[in-house]
């Protein structure tokens, strides 16, 4: 039983791990423990995680570093990610509580809807700014091109040359030199301006290329993560298949063990019947031996016969007393077993109540485990009581063996007496003459012996009446056994009905598993569509409203999957109840057979 319970525990733990519910419970426990430990620490102290991580310290040194960390913490707090929030706050050294309104005022964020985090509004503002910058850049580029076409440097120089009229003589040469110098200066300025523009364009192109590389790396990372998640899902599916196969194998092994137990119990019944027959034969032999003894002793001597009869009667009384004691002990054992059965029924009721509470409150798992350990201890006590009962039965068997040894001793005594008789016959021929003289006295003694024989016959009748009472008791025991077998048949019918219900529940579970697989396929398709929308969003083709509607549909599908998982868990708990009841019935049958 203990091994079966341990196997059931391991199977339940594995199924909970496969469904992901055990991970949720562990995460909630870790978060609560971490929060308690973090609240006990001094808030003014610097976290050891923060002192070890130098990158977060560099973020804190920036002007907008604290605001960035507060936005992330607000996002985690908004979606109630308590475990990740506690770890993030300790690593970023943000143990103080955050107010959403103060952050929105500092960053000048207009909160239109309270059902969305602040990062959502910042993303919307960034997208709007990108669109405005693109429109402004197109306008400025067109204006620059038009200005370059309208105002070229050569035309400006020619206009200046045309405006300035040449002078006569030296003044004309000086004027020409000045114009050349001005022309050279203008060309140098234009060349510098062009070089600066070329350098700016090169820098912008380099930045653009770096951004493209970063985006490619991000995409590759996301693809790798998706592949890893898919591999994990496939592994989980394979593990579930293995778990189902192991469950089937273990159920078959349990059925084989039950069949073996039934065969052993039938063999024990046959052995008990054989022992009863042997006891009856031995009793008959003992009675025959006693009668033969009495006859021989009456013929030989009076005193020896009386002594032996008294000893035999004492032995019979002792055996009867021992038998009565054994019957009393059996009745006591049956009463104790009934009490134990009642206790087991009470404990089963308690277990059913605990299982119902477990369906309502997953948080009380640890308490249930403690109660299970207590119940196991009670079962161990019950098993110890059963062992004690077995020891008592072994003692009774030993007493029976002692009685058999006494009977064998009596047989040996009879053989010795026969030898003595032979010697007595030889001596009797010599003492015939003496017996003739004592014949008269012998007749007188014979009359007294007849009286004593009458008394012995009365005692034999009393013994026969006691034997009849024992037979009546045996008949009553057989009647109680028949009643108990009828009850057992009714219980077996109930067990068969429960097994049929269990099979129906298993079929329903298979249908639910197929539905869950369909929903998982739908979720995979939805994730592919999410990736597609994310790529579109990065390219700037998708609208945020479409993404929100799509994410709401995905959440609905996720809630459906969780509901199916809860139904499957209820089915598993019902199956466990039935399996436990079947184990109890087999244990109960074994106890009854042991009594018989």
Describe the overall structure:
The structure is a single chain. The protein has 596 residues and is mainly α. Among the domains are: 24-98, no CATH class; 283-423; 469-596. The chain has 15 helices and no strands. It has helices at 2-19, 21-40, 48-52, 54-61, 65-78, 82-92, 100-107, 118-150, 153-163, 170-300, 302-360, 365-430, 432-437, 439-539, 544-595. The longest helix is centred in the middle third of the chain and has 131 residues, at 170-300. The model is unreliable at 147-169, 577-586 and 590-596 (pLDDT under 50).
Given helix and strand content, the structural type is mainly alpha
Q: SSE string, helix = H, strand = E? A: HHHHHHHHHHHHHHH
DSSP strand content: under 5%
Largest sheet properties = none
Q: Tell me roughly what share of residues is in helical segments.
A: over 70%
How many individual helices?
A: 15
Give the low-confidence spans: 147-169, 577-586, 590-596
Q: What's the shape?
A: rod-shaped
Number of strands: 0
Let me know the average pLDDT.
73
Question: What's the helix and strand layout?
Answer:
Elements (H helix, E strand, L loop, with lengths): L1 H18 L1 H20 L7 H5 L1 H8 L3 H14 L3 H11 L7 H8 L10 H33 L2 H11 L6 H131 L1 H59 L4 H66 L1 H6 L1 H101 L4 H52 L1
Helix pairs in contact: 1-10, 2-6, 5-6, 10-11, 10-12, 10-15, 11-12, 11-15, 14-15
Name the features.
single chain, 596 residues, mainly alpha, coiled coil, cytoskeleton, cytoplasm
